[in-house]
Amino acid sequence: MTATHHPSDVGGATGSGTEGLVLGDRQLPFALPQTLPELRTYLQGALEIEHLTIPPYLTAMYTVQAGTNKAAYYTIRSIVLEEMLHMTLVANLLNAVGGRPRVAHPDFVRSYPAKLPYSALDVEIPLRHFSPEAMRTFLLIEHPQRHDAGPFQPEQG
Q1: Superfamily of structural domain 35-142
Q2: What are phi and psi of 115, to 5 degrees?
Q3: Which positions ≥6 away from 70 have C-beta within 8 Å?
Q4: What is the model's pLDDT at position 16?
Q5: DSSP type of residue 121
Q6: How far, CA to CA in Å, does 18 sit from each of 12, 97, 98, 138?
Q7: CB of 116 closer than 8 Å to CB of 65
Q8: Is the peptide bond before 154 cis (omega within 30 degrees of 0)?
Q9: What are the pLDDT digits (tens) for 53-91?
Q10: Is the whole-model pTM more than 0.90?
Q11: In angstroms, rounded to a whole number, what is the distance separating the alpha carbons of residues 132 and 4?
C-alpha cells in the first residue's frame, strides 16, 4: 500500500500555496482540508486521479475493431467524456479557490500500470485492449473499496 501523508508534509511533492502539490505516487489521508493550501492540494490530487483514469478508457476504446461493437465503443467514449468533464470541474474548483491546476508537471502524468490512489485494494490500472480484463479494470476504477468511511464524519458533541 502507498503511504499517506498530511498535505503539508508530503515528501517530494512539489508546488506552492497557490498551486497545490503535485502528488504523483504520493497520497493524502482521508481528512477534511483545514487550510486553503491544503484544499488546493486535495483538489490537485483529485485532478490527478481523474487524469489517471482517461488513458485506460481511451486504450480500450481505440482497440475496439471498427464496425464490430459500436455500443461498446460509444459507451466507453461517453465514460471518457465524463472523466474529462470531472477533470474540468476539478480544475475549475481549483481556479475558484485561487489555485492553478498543474498539468504540465512531469509527475502529473503517470506511468502505466499505475496504482489506483485511495483504494483499499492494491489495484494496478494497466492499459489494456478492449477485453473482459479491461472491463474488470473499469469496475475497479468506478467502484473502489475505500480505506475508511471517508472524510465527512459528523463531529461528536
Answers
A1: Ferritin, core subunit, four-helix bundle (1.20.1260.10)
A2: -75, 140
A3: none
A4: 47
A5: S
A6: 17, 9, 6, 33
A7: no
A8: no
A9: 999 999 999 999 988 999 999 999 999 999 999 999 999
A10: no
A11: 32
